[in-house]
Amino acid sequence: MILTFLARSRSLVWVNAWSASLRTTKRGRALFEPFYFVNNRSGRSLSVSAVDLADVDTESADGSFASDAFQVQAPFPPAGDQPAAIQALIERVQQGDRFALLRGCTGTGKTLVMSHVIAGTQKPTLVLCHNKTLAAQLARELRAFLGPVVELFVSYYNHYRPEFYRETTGTYMAKKSSVNPDLDVLRHRATRALASRRNVVVVASVSCLFGLGLPKEYLDACVHYKTHDPLDWDEFVEKLTRLQYRMAVDDDSFERGKYQVLHDDSSDSKVITLWPPYEKFPMQLVVAPMAANSTQFSVRRILQGNQDGFHPINGCKLFPASHHVTHDMEAACLSIEEELQERIKYFNDMGNKDACNRLQVSVLRDLDQLRTWHSCKGIENYSRHLAGRPAGLPPDTLLDYMRLLNGDDWLLMMDESHVTLPQLSSMFRGDQSRKRQLVKHGFRLPSALDNRPLNEHEFWDRASQTIFVSATPSPRELALTNSDPIDMIIRPTHVCDPKIEVRPADGKHINDLIEEVKTRAKKKQGSLVITLTKRDAEDLASHLEGCGVKSAYLHSGLKTLERSNALRALQLREIDCIVGINCLREGLDLPQVSLVAVLNADCEGFLRSESALLQVVGRAARNVHGMAIFYANRVTDSMKRCMDLTAHRRQLQLDYNKKNGCSTRSTTGSSALSFFDLLKEQIELEKGLMAEESKAVQLASFTSEPLQIISAQKGKSQIVTDHIPNTPGVYFWKDDEGSILYIGKGVNLRSRVKSYISPSAKHGPRIKEMVRRAKSVDVVLTASERDALLLESNYIKHHQPPFNVLLKDDEHYPYICASVGDSIPSLTVVPYRKPEHVSGSSRYRYFGPYTSFQEINAILDDIERMYDLRVKSFMTRQGSLSKEAYNELFDKALEEIFGDSRGLSHNLRIRRRQYEEAGLLFDSESNACRDVVTVQLLQDDKAIVSVMQLRSGIMAGRYKYTCQVSAGLGDEDLGSVLQTVLTERHYPSGGEHSTSWFPDNVLLSLPALDVKVLKESIRESRSRIEPNRKGRIQVRTAATRGAQKEIDERTLEFATKNMFQDLLTHANQYSISLNGDLASTELADLLALENPPSRIECYDISHTQGENAVASRVVFENGEPQPHLYRQFVIRSVVGIDDYASIEEVLERRFRRAFKSNTDLDGDDPWAVPDLVVIDGGKGQLNAAVKGISKAAESPEGQFDIRSLVAVCALAKDKEEVFVPGRGDPVNDHPDSRALLLLRALRDESHRFALKAHRKRRSVLKHV
């Protein structure tokens, strides 16, 4: 049976198979009297008006009610104390009371009362909750009673760590967050619903106290389209831009908040596919021109998408893609610049140069991005300028949307007000305290202080009539409410408060708890266990799993959906127990729970106060068999008050049940589906979009517009990648002034860099802009991908390139921290090493860093499987295991895994060291401020000395010095060369550089001639340039034993590798031609040729799955490309995919033409025989080429020496291996020699030319 409220005029009727009769007072208020009657109009389900309970008339039962009123649908009538509470609250709202308090025990049906009050007052309602989990559950329950009028508004962050600066340690942490797009959809749905209709209930977390753009601009910006409406194309595109919809360049980038324009060539119409952020699926507008070549169009069809396709609808209303609508971005930027200049002057007057420079760099970078993209990282900190608000004014929030659309005629309900109300002031104070530190030290402008939540005074200025709802209200709510609170003690199910038992926490109580949980699991009942800390919750859940109890933990560290899924698992009996902290106190509807166990109940404090204990005990008050157990060694005052009040309520409930003959029953609870699942269908089919047809229509075939590809050409020059090796490392994109635009890492550096400038590359708008500005690329080579990951992170933090700030969040690679100084030590994951722990502390030991949480979790999981440390730690904290036994086990694990022991965990220790290898180089203390000096003897009696500066986890600089040396100088004499360069050239030039020029220690690849002289020379230069710098300078070669040996060897390997790369990069000046003779000489030695090759040809094949195959030939003379000699070959005889046959055909045709000539061809003739033929491929392609040349020479294959005709080699792509005829293994042993650079240049040029030829041929065939 269903009870329904519905408004019509000013009338009221009770209907359906049961109800409570009403009598109307002279003042027009309805009174509840509990009895039942049957509706006389059989066969019709009528509704009840509750907008205004006065003037009841007989015409109100005719069924013609307004369609936009609140309706309550419930499978049961109000019972217990509910009818009286509903009546009293409606009366207080109608008589204009500013505050009312509903004080109801857990399980008395406060949510149903709230629903009836909303329908009884017919006011738009904002329900405020203190966390996401409670908001989602309450929205789900209200939606079950009120239907689809209920919306959810919570923070769209899955994880959020605010930006902060800790003054005591000098630690700055950038904001780190991850956005859940589904939650953002719900936020847009909520504001759209408020703007579209009056019967709206928005359940919001305290996220609604933060700024939400400009309500008036948001509402004014929306546009409405109907079929057959005229549409000016230029104006339409301008409106989409103003609504902050962006055009998607391709299907891959199409997402919410973007649109695409497709063309139907057959009808000359356009199809705009648009994805509003509040819709589950995109929508389409089909427009046709009113005349040929006209910008005036007519809307032919509007289609709304769903899982089956697109359905026609009559019209649509487009709301902005973002709540932050800014019409004049340039004015906002000018205002930001003005504030920046004022702040620069302030810091200069204070003499704080660091803060001044820091602020200027970050704000100018943000301004550049705001002008380019209308967005930047941390744009919320400029919200005052973007909104055009004066300084100090509060931001516009969801409450302003309520006021703008409804005036004061709306209702605020504050659920669990004893927790929610204190957040009004604490959120504001915490936000301001954090941001004042950022402003003080130059991380943010003072206007960032205006990006804040409302304070309590501002909140109450905006709030309307308010109803507090709580089982344990605080004195604050009682003081605000002028009248007495409305109490609810009797539950509709007549279930009494649970019994409470106190059991000793004697070390055996964990076994007792396990038995209690198992007993209830056998009866298909759930249990809740309340601990004091997150660690206890996780450890106990793990221990319960080990004892055969299906369990999960629940605390604030979990993401929103993870918490919701854990509760749902308990509702569906997929698990038998949830272990948590205070997340289990308020608002959780879990009638399956018959046991609540509180550990450490005698630890007096916030989590064990009277209010907290009452809320916890209430979790078992929905089940007939409910029971609570306090594990404690004494009874605290809070415990006593809680037990006394619970016993008093229980007695009242028992007496009521006995007097009225009531039988008890457990509640069934709300749906096990999450709120997001319940909204799934509602998101797909919107109430305001009326479908014209129920059958989906098929889309016509459309051709998308061609994409514009950014060329790799930079004026007359080109970014060349031949000098970049196929090894792990970090790359830097730089502009024409050498400023770093973007930093990235790659396992294969050359392939990664080439992917940016490839003609077929598809990039987003930011990367396209970065590539457009980039003029050069530089690289740093690393030994492994982990090294590259860590080095990339350190470089980004140090340089903060503009395009990284937009694309990559700040990262900290985690450590394992062993708290060896604690009485009960543990292994935990920490994001970084605390400075106070690193310097001289014996309480903590750090291991790492690890470049991924997957690695660190794998190590900890293996430790747990092997030693069971977490469970043993929990048992020790609960007194079930002695501290001595646990500490002995912990020390054993630490030694075997992190020490040098070769116990059972030897393999785990080796794997752990492999994971930590990146930290040896970029995170070790010895490399924090170190110079690494390498030296190499070159040809022509020259030597090069390279100095690599390692500073704070990055390679801060590379300097090379070339000097002439005596003829016949051996490697053993290079120490004197090294010392001369350092003492006479490198360190004396420190005055021209930054103050970080001088290191704390110097690592030499070879022993210096006289270390004492070298150290004294460095100290002398340092005292002259940095007179305030003190401390020892250590100069030495690599260590030969101990842990330092591994660090030094890895550091020298890193420096040597980059020294050779530096030689290839800068000595060749990014061009093969400058050293073509040298490269040809090395190539002749590599291939065993008599003379260096002058003319070289390279061949490549391009096709699409065997169709339209084209071969290309490029020619280099003395290292220079000769485009006039390039040729294309259309494959004639080969059918299908056969690169070998294609190579054979092309080489036969090419050399048959050369060999048939009776005279020697001129060197500039395109068919002259070259000195060397290079094939793009491996041994198979090489053999095919030899076969083709032998056919051209009309010689049987294998019976002649191919080198008597022409030299041939092949370059394989994967490992850059060079193959020659007659030899199975590659002939090259160095992947980055000059000879190989020349071959790469040939291969890459032939590949580029082949692709170009193939595209041209495919285009011609398509038109034919």
UniProtKB/TrEMBL annotation:
Domain of life of the source: Eukaryota
Describe the location of the UvrC family homology region profile domain by residue ranges. 938-1185
GO MF terms listed in the record are: ATP binding; ATP hydrolysis activity; DNA binding; excinuclease ABC activity
Start and end of every GIY-YIG domain?
A: 726-805
Q: Residue ranges of the Helicase C-terminal domain?
A: 509-672
Q: Name one Pfam family in it.
A: Helicase_C
Alphabetized, the UniProt keywords read: Cytoplasm, DNA damage, DNA excision, DNA repair, Excision nuclease
**What Gene Ontology cellular-component terms does the record carry?**
excinuclease repair complex
Asked if DNA damage is a keyword of the record, the answer is yes
Gene Ontology process terms (BP): nucleotide-excision repair
Under the heading CDD domains, the entry gives:
GIY-YIG_UvrC_Cho
Q: List, alphabetically, the PANTHER family matched.
A: UVRABC SYSTEM PROTEIN B
Q: What is this protein called?
A: Excinuclease ABC subunit B
- Origin organism lineage: Eukaryota, Sar, Stramenopiles, Ochrophyta, Bacillariophyta
